[in-house]
Amino acid sequence: MVSIGIIEYIITVFTAVMASGGLWTLLQRRLDRRDDKTKLLLGMCHDRIFFLGLQYLERGFVTKDELVNIHKYLSEPYFKLGGNGAVEGIMERIDKLPVRDIGEVLKEMRK
């Protein structure tokens, strides 16, 4: 059977470790790194959405695959990670573009 003295000692040590500045510093550093990674991802998504979006707008149409790609893999994760509304405007303009079949586009490119 474990004595009460040992239990009190374990609780004291556990409390001291939890309250120590070192543990909280370590946790904060890990959170800061995640925050930096999130900022980097948001920046990359923002840049890619604008880059592709401007190409589609200049071209005057978008293919179904391109539309699915920019929504599913870029804009949706961008907003879930906390991206701002600057991307909303370009996405709204992309959504208004005519959607063309990729096969037709490829045929025209071969001509």
- Mean pLDDT comes to 85
| Strand numbers in spatial order across the main sheet | 1-2
Low-confidence stretches: none
Major sheet attributes: 2 strands, parallel
Element-level helix/strand string: HHEHHEH
Terminus-to-terminus distance:
87 Å
β-strand percent reads under 5%
Structural class: mainly alpha
The DSSP helix count reads 5
Rg from C-alpha positions? 26 Å
Please tell me what the overall shape is: rod-shaped
Give the helix proportion (percent range). over 70%
- Can you count the beta strands? 2
Structure characterization notes:
This protein has 111 residues and is mostly helical. 82% of the residues lie in helices and 4% in strands. The chain is built from 5 helices and 2 strands; from the N terminus they run H-H-E-H-H-E-H. The mean pLDDT is 85.
